[in-house]
Amino acid sequence: MGDRLKGRVAIVTGAGRGIGRGEALALASEGARVIVNDLGGEVDGSGGAKSPADEVVDEIKKIGSEAIPNYDNVVQFATGEKIVKLALDTWGQLDILINNAGILRDRMLFNMAEEEWDAVIAVHLKGHFNLAKHACMYFRQERKPGVIINTSSTSGLGNPGQANYAAAKEGIVGMTRTIAREMGRYGVRCNAIRPQAATRLTLSDDMRRRFERAGEAGMKMLAELEKQTPEEIGPMVAWLCTDEAANINGRTFMVRAGLIGLYSEPEIIGSIETEKPWSVDAISDILPKQVTGSLANEWPAQPPKE
Question: By C-alpha distance, which of 61, 165, 184 is closest to 123?
């Protein structure tokens, strides 16, 4: 075991399997005491079981660190307060929050039901809020430094069939930047990751069928994804929680096996200005010439399939 996080207390949501499990173990391997939160549900959020969280707690104890399970649903606002209180009642402090819990309800937007939209937004976006709010309340009231790591996704950059998931994941990036700006004055850092790994979500039956429909290129992508183990994500998350990463705040990283990438922050890459109110004619005359003329529609209309 290392000792970069010795004496610190962490909460990891969705830690019973996949990426969350790897994150919990990586934190524990550096000396952190961990609350392992997991509802134990299916990929779509249905059902529940205690065994996933319990098994990770046992794994952490075997490597010589401390852990306790929690089985509450992050969708519930009260869960955030409950888990933070659990950390304080058990170990008297909270230092790290890893928001990871998530589900999938994939569907093309024109076929997506309201419930499928609401469920994914609730688990990912509201779930991040529920935990972050109560952690930030504690950090602010106690004037105690802390670290929050949120989980976004490359799907947030645009992925057909995942409008709900993409919206939630990009919302998480915006939340991350805002938390960093609000809480930096109190010594709290907040960053986000876009992990890529073979998990129950990324290798679900729906996702496999999507890869298959893409033909040879899709199967090649699937083969590459299957090599990306979720355990590869944890070390970067653990490092971001250490004092060595004290200069990193409000940033987003790609993390996968063999690659860690820092994303640029959005910036204006072209603009036009006027001293008069805009008119459609003025925009039509100037904008294509100076800014948009070289752009190409990457997703143009296609002829109907026979």
Answer: 165
Mean pLDDT of 195-211: 71
Write the CA distances from 6 to 11, 34, 88, 90, integer angstroms: 15, 11, 17, 16
165 included as an active-site residue: yes
Which of the following is catalytic: 71, 138, 165, 186?
Answer: 165
What pTM, to 2 d.p., does this model score? Answer: 0.90
Q: What is the largest CA-CA distance in the chain?
A: 70
Q: What is the CA radius of gyration of the chain?
A: 21
Q: What is the pLDDT of residues 179-192, one digit of tens each?
A: 999 999 999 999 99
Contact 150, 176 (CB under 8 A): yes
Question: Listing from the earlier edge strand, what are the strands of the sheet with 9-12?
Answer: 67-70, 33-37, 9-12, 96-99, 146-151, 188-195, 252-256, 259-262
pLDDT for res 222 = 64
How many angstroms separate the Cα of 37 from the Cα of each of 84, 94, 101, 148?
11, 15, 9, 15
Residues whose CB is less than 8 angstroms from the CB of residue 236 and which lie 6 or more positions away in sequence, other chains included: 193, 253, 255, 260
Give the model's pLDDT for residue 205: 67
- Distance from chain centroid for Cα 35: 18
Query: Do residues 9 and 87 make contact, with C-beta atoms less than 8 angstroms apart?
Result: yes
Cα–Cα separations (whole angstroms), residue 174 to 281, 285, 298: 34, 34, 25
CA 27 to chain centre: 17
Question: Domains in the chain, ordered, with CATH?
Answer: 9-198+230-262 (3.40.50.720)
